[in-house]
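lol forgot to send this yesterday, sorry. struct tokens for the thing we talked abt
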């Protein structure tokens, strides 16, 4: 069942789900590269890999998992390269799937954050460190991609509250499990839902963070 599967996301995430999440991130990275005149095909592949499983590699490094999960199965690299091929061949026609990519991004953000939080809790980390690891896993790939493009990471600039949404989702999971005594399956489902809704709603409403001071404002 879904609830039983969610309980074991940290150790038994279905391969198909992990590969699909990696593919969604890689497709986003390839599309970003396509819009950048300073990147060639190798640059596109690099961004695809970063967005596909960069956050997962950061999570594994922080938690001492070696080799990183993304390198233990050829499907992960394969789906990232497939995303590059799709964008290189048909990139001009992919604007029609932007709504699908938003939904996928929102789901992946919550999924990666919860998986990392479960693993961090299993490793015995304190709650604040669990949230830190979960958020880094959720947004780390994008940070690496921005740095490689010579830009300040998106999560540090005024814009969509991407990192704050990840904090809300991962924080919800930790609070429900640690303070509320909720079952991991229930907490995971609620946390992924919070992250998904937060990402979609803030995007649709045009919510953005403001420069040099706290707060959110509508577009």
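and heres what i got for the seq, position by position
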């Amino acid at each position: 069942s879904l609830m039983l599967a969610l309980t074991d996301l940290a150790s038994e995430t279905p391969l198909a789900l992990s590969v699909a999440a990696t593919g969604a991130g890689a497709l986003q990275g390839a599309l970003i590269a396509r819009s950048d005149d300073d990147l060639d095909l190798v640059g596109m592949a690099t961004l695809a890999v970063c967005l596909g499983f960069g956050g997962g590699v950061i999570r594994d490094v922080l938690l001492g998992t070696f080799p990183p999960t993304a390198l233990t199965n050829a499907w992960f690299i394969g789906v990232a390269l497939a995303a590059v091929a799709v964008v290189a061949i048909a990139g001009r026609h992919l604007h029609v799937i932007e709504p699908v990519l938003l939904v996928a991004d929102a789901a992946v953000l919550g999924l990666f954050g919860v998986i990392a939080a479960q693993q961090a809790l299993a490793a015995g980390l304190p709650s604040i460190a669990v949230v830190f690891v979960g958020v880094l896993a959720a947004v780390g790939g994008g940070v690496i991609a921005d740095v490689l493009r010579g830009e300040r990471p998106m999560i540090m600039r005024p814009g969509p509250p991407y990192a704050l949404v990840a904090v809300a989702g991962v924080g919800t999971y930790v609070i429900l499990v640690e303070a509320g005594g909720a079952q991991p399956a229930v907490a995971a489902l609620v946390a992924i839902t919070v992250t998904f809704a937060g990402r979609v709603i803030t995007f649709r409403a045009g919510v953005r963070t403001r420069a040099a001071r706290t707060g959110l404002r509508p577009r």
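The CA atoms of residues 110 and 192 lie 5 Å apart. anyway ping me if u want another try
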